[in-house]
């Protein structure tokens, strides 16, 4: 826990080892101009945010990214390890306003790969608690993405293969489930078992139980429901993967039913609730999920009381167009949905987060200023540089508070071009 200010290194009381905390301000708070120049108006990216009773130091977050690093066999399948503590701790020390832990399965068969994290038991939640404790030691807010892989579960880790199922009995794979018995890719993934209504109800309950563990045992600050990228909830939303004729198929309200039931089961009055969706299936196929439908879903989700809609794209159709590339490439999708929410006239519309192509503070700030989004999430930039929040602040002329050992990053001004000594070419 952040305990105050002072002039000496102070230790956190959240962990059982000496861990210095930020001395002057909580990690992630803007504390003035960089040595580059004069004090500037505070960028919106580094303004605080309050959702329900939770205070975030800034609006730049670490997007959930699978690391495929949990044990896949033995008694600790799906448990978080020291690796995860180090991985997420590196972001917590350096100024991220929020961190979302990677897709974590609410049931064993819901893991995206055999090496994915799980939270289907109290023991799994206890393995995640050290990650939360470390983040809280710096005053950093941290949430967890709860998910079920559906027909794309039991996949090989992406570093090994971009999109291929893990074979049952050979690659530690298992039988998968989905809204309809339609394979994601007949050459790489088997057709899933079609869920019965009773089985759907069990999955909804699994999300509820997982959220309770996340709060009561691991002490996460918020949860995000994973409804994107072609995993179970996303499969229900799209007509390409959902051909049901019962209460969970057909009209949009029916295809969205499982997600809305999960939202109703998980939400409470204390914790912010995030939901991630794909804005489209990235195809012109007749039954595909579209941006227009995503906008209608956003209104339904607002009616059901979510707090943040995290807008991504694609993942449900193996022949889809490639996602747009470049700076803030998916921001237009977030803006379209945000505009639809605000056109409704609600006094306090839900917040919208944008992800994809945020590699500088300037681009992130632009997308907040033009009202494309209220929160910016970055993934690969944090993988490349865990101090991306500090770097984004420097892009905008703002110094961001970080943990004591990293305050050194501001001690020396960056060299101007005429101060750089050229490196001689290597002599062969």
Automatic annotation (TrEMBL):
Native source organism of the sequence: Cyberlindnera jadinii (strain ATCC 18201 / CBS 1600 / BCRC 20928 / JCM 3617 / NBRC 0987 / NRRL Y-1542)
Protein name listed in UniProt: FMN-linked oxidoreductase
Signal sequence extent: none
PANTHER family per the UniProt record, alphabetical: NADPH DEHYDROGENASE C23G7.10C-RELATED
Keywords of the record: Flavoprotein, FMN, NADP, Oxidoreductase
CDD domains: OYE_YqiM_FMN (cd02932)
Domain NADH:flavin oxidoreductase/NADH oxidase N-terminal positions: 44-391
Pfam families tied to this protein: Oxidored_FMN
Lineage of producing organism: Eukaryota, Fungi, Dikarya, Ascomycota, Saccharomycotina
